Each structure stands twice: as C-alpha cells, then as structure tokens.
Amino acid sequence: MLTMGQKKIVTRELRDRYHKSSKKEKTIILDEFIKLTGYNRCYACQVLNLKKEKVLGYMNIAGKRIKYVADNRKIKRKKTKIYDQEVFRALRKIWEIFDYICSKRLAPFLKEILPVLEKWEEIKLSVEVREKLFKISAATIDRLLAPTRKRYRIKGRSTTRPGSLLKKSIPIRTFTDWDEAKPGFFEVDLVSHDGGAVRGDFIQSLNFTDISTGWEEMIAVKNKAQVWVFAGIKKIKERLPFSILGIDSDNGAEFINAHLLRYCEKEQITFTRSRPYRKNDSCFVEQKNYSVIRRAVGYSRYYTAEELTLLNELYGYLRLYVNFFQPVRKLIKKERIGSKVKKRYDEAKTPYRRVLASPNIKSDIKMKLKSQYAMLNPAELKRKITKLQNRLLKLNALKQEMSKEKEKDMDPFVYIST
Questions:
Q1: Do both 242 and 217 map to the same domain?
Q2: Together in a domain, 59 and 90
Q3: CA-to-CA distance for 285 and 111, rounded, in angstroms?
Q4: What strand order describes the sheet that includes 204-210?
Q5: Which of 145, 245, 305, 381 could form a disulfide with 184 if both were Cys (CB 3.0 to 4.6 A apart)?
Q6: Are 63 and 140 contained in the same domain?
C-alpha cells in the first residue's frame, strides 16, 4: 500500500495526463489510479479533476509562510431581468380579466386584446412593457404566474335518464353525416343544478356548442321537461349569428321526443344522437359544460324563479364574454407512439375569430359581428358577470339559512334550551 506522500506524487503525475485524455483513456487511467491508491472511485475522480493552482505569491504573517493562489471557481453569470415587476403586474391584471386562462391560450391572444383594453382605458402600459408583452412566450407566462395560480377540481354527477321510445327514429351520429368544418353543427346537452340531491324540480342549463368554431350558447330552463327544453332551443336559434345545420344530443328523454324530431324535420336540421353510455361522443359540449357553465355558476342547487332570472341575465353577458374574448385551441392531429398519445393543437383563437375566418359565413353576418365586437369591453363584461355571480351566492346562502330555520321549527325535539 502506498504512503500518503507516494499517493500525492502519483496524483501529480497522472493529473495532467488525465485532463488531456479522451473519455475512454480517462476510464483506463482512473482504473489504474484506484488500484494504486485504494481511493473510492468518486473521490478519485474529484482528485484527478482538480486543476493546478496558480500561485500569485507568498507572504510571511506571524512567522508563517502563507501562499496566495488564484480563485479557479466559475463565476456565475448574472442575467439581466427582462420581464420585470411592471410586466408581471400588467400580465396578472390581463390574466384576471380573461378568467385565468392557460398560457397557451393567452400568449397568442395578447396582440389582439391589448389595444382593446387600452381603448377602453382598462389598462395603461408604457411602450417598453407593451413590446415585452407582445413578445412574451407561453412558458414565460407560466413561470411568472406560477406563484399566483390556483386550481380547483370539482366533480359533478349525471342526471340523464334514457328516452327509448324514439331511439330507432333518430340515428346514432357517425362522422360521415356531418361536415364539421362548416359552422352550424352543434352538440347539445343539459347541465343540472341539483346541488347533489336529485329530487324534485331544479333548474337546468341548456348548452349548445358549435364543433367547427367553438361558438357557445347557453340558456337556463325551469326543469328538463320537453316543453321548456324545446322553448330554450328556439330562443338559442334566434340568438345565433348563423343557422343550425345539425343537432347531436345524448339519449335523454328531454331530447329524444317526437316534438323535437318533427321540428328538426321541418327546419331541415340533421338530428342525431350519441351512443348510450359513451360520454366522449359529445366531447365538445361536455368540455364546455365544465369550462364555461360549471366555472361560472358552480354546483349549487337552483330552483327558484329569481335564480332562473339571474342565471339567464348572467348567461346573456357570459355568451358575449366567452365567444368574443375566450380563445380556444382545436386538436388538429393525434398520433399514438407506443403507450403515449401525442396531440397537436392549432393556435388559440376566439370563436368570433374562427367565425370571421370561415368561408361558409356570409359577409353581412361578419360585418354585424365586427360592429358588435367594437362595442364590447371585456373588463366591463367580467365585472357584470362577477356581480351577478355574487348575487347568486348571496341568494343561495340566504336560501340555506331559511331552510335551516324551517328544520328547527319542524322538529320539536331539537334545539330545546335547558
């Protein structure tokens, strides 16, 4: 076994050779060095990788000779901060106005929306901050907003009951029946506001989603009776900027009925249904059920006439906010590689922009939409929506207090003071 002095000599001799060698040669030298010295492999690497000290000079202090060497440590490069606090504050305000959308949807939307917010004096930006926001990437937005981002995940329940009498009359949708590149083919669904207790009557939200453009229309109806659902469909038809070419529903009795079937035949609307127990057949509307309706009104139980009026007033503003100021991404390619599925999406655009880009929409309809867009302030729409949401929350809280008081009055064996 080598002494400590001999080990130091061997180390000095091999160090220069080790630094100049290739990867394979280094492995051979390292193996020989470990055999000679008995060092651990990790420590041996560390010893051989040490660079030769550059002696700057010597000094005698209190009878001791002290050697001064150069500092070989790497100097950490100082990066200049591009996106400072001003950019962050502006970005956070824009993010809040547009309902905390993800960076992949927000980044391409900034160029369009910044002039709109400045026009309505909702935000004031310097030239430097505006240019930075125009250039900012989705990854940088995620990094800047990471500390303030919050996620809520709540699951609901299905209240669809099958309507089997007319199933044979209404065909199951196949993708050859529909021209999904053309606006006008809608997936339809009901969102129930039962509060977790599926008993009695409660309000339902009728949701229409256009597959081509992502255009969203919603209306609250008294319950899921055929008469109210059919009346809601007719009101939505009047609101739409383009005509309905196709309706695809689930197998619930509120849709699978002779009344709606006759109406679709009369209006020359293609009426199809999804396969039973296959939710993904209606994936477009199912996604909007959560991302639009559930996010806006939650999972509480609504059943009063006042709540019905409030919901429809809220939906009047929400439809404008979603269609004109909420960009969406569409899946353009899906590829399976082994056990993984690789998905590719197009650039995020609002339903309004997709309608304008469609060659199947008439120019006079596009002109009407452009004039309507010019009159809309997204921040004001957001404030109105929030105000109505707060009113709904207060109304629901008051309703719960009244029901508790009623329970106290009904039960004589509870709340007896001693």
A1: yes
A2: no
A3: 28
A4: 216-221, 204-210, 185-192, 246-249, 270-273
A5: 245
A6: no
Of 98, 121, 148, the one marking the end of a domain is: 148
Q: Please give the pLDDT value at position 358.
A: 95
Q: What is the 3-state secondary structure (H, E, C) of the chain?
A: CCCHHHHHHHHHHHHHHHHHCCHHHHHHHHHHHHHHHCCCHHHHHHHHHCCCCCEEEEEEECCEEEEEECCCCCCCCCCCCCCCHHHHHHHHHHHHHCCCCCHHHHHHHHHHHHHHHHHCCCCCCCHHHHHHHHHCCHHHHHHHHHHHCCCCCCCCCCCCCECCCCCCCCCECCCCCCCCCCCCEEEEEEEECECCCCCCCCCEEEEEEECCCCCEEEEEECCCCHHHHHHHHHHHHHHCCCCCCEEEECCECCCCCHHHHHHHHHCCCEEEECCCCCHHHHHHHHHHHHHHHHHHHCCCECCCHHHHHHHHHHHHHHHHHHHHHCCECCEEEEEEECCEEEEEECCCECHHHHHHHCCCCCHHHHHHHHHHHHCCCHHHHHHHHHHHHHHHHHHHHHHHHHHHHHHHHHCCCCCCCC
Judge whether 91 lies within some domain: yes
> What tokens does 208 get?
């229409």
Are 123 and 218 within one domain? no
In a domain, 49, yes or no: yes
Average pLDDT over the chain, rounded to an integer: 87
Q: Tens of pLDDT along 179-234?
A: 678 999 999 999 999 988 888 899 999 999 999 999 999 999 999 999 999 999 99
Question: Six-digit token pair at 57?
Answer: 């000079």
pTM: 0.76
The count of other CB atoms within 10 Å of the CB of residue 91 is 22
Residues 397 and 327 in one domain: yes
Same domain, 280 and 341: yes
In a domain? residue 167: no
Identify the pLDDT of residue 155: 46
294: Cβ–Cβ under 8 A, 6 or more apart, which residues? 154, 156, 191
80 domain residue, yes or no: no
Please tell me the total count of domains within the chain.
3
Angle, vertex CA 415, rays to CA 412 and CA 418, nearest 5 = 110
CA distance 106 to 347: 10
Question: Do residue 326 and residue 208 come from a single domain?
Answer: yes
